């Protein structure tokens, strides 16, 4: 025999049913946040573009400095010498800006980290081939394993899983266990 009165039992049911929206929202919110994090992880690492920009600016600077060397070794007008020097100065500024932008970024992926280490190793080997830092970076870059392949996309993502779990929970609360199984199987 139950000692709980009918109004008390009704209040318990109401409290449970009033909690259902919060219970259903929680997996969806958690799955949404996880899906956002997964999308950020799948997006191309911005450091890869910054590395390519810096490499391009390094090449432009090398060409501008080579033009300065050619102008210095030949007879050119003072106006042309000033132009070549201004082009080299602008290339130097662009390369410094690209490098400053690169060092402000942090890699978001393993691929980005590997690319950044290899880029710094290449620069150090070019600027100070026998320096301790250059040798350490060279050895580190050589020891890096290949970047693992990206995992294949799953058939059901986290938002879909949260929807399935939420709908199943709703069916369990409202109709009972046997109906929940039937409803769960209908989702597939």
Q: What are the segments in which pLDDT stays under 50 over at least 5 consecutive residues?
A: none
Question: How many helices in DSSP terms?
Answer: 7
The largest pleated sheet is described as: none
Rg is: 31 Å
- What's the rounded overall pLDDT mean? 75
Helix- and strand-based class? mainly alpha
Strand residue percentage:
under 5%
**Gap between N and C termini, in Å?**
42 Å
Strand segment count: 0
Helix share bin = over 70%
Order of helices and strands: HHHHHHH
Q: Specify the overall morphology.
A: elongated
Descriptive account of the structure:
It is built from 7 helices and no strands. α2 (46-73) runs antiparallel to α3 (78-104) and α2 runs parallel beside α4 (110-127). With 188 residues, it is mostly helical. The model has no long low-confidence stretch (mean pLDDT 75). It is elongated, with a radius of gyration of 31 Å.
Provide a brief overview of the structure.
The protein is mainly alpha-helical and 188 residues long. The protein is 80% helix and 0% strand.
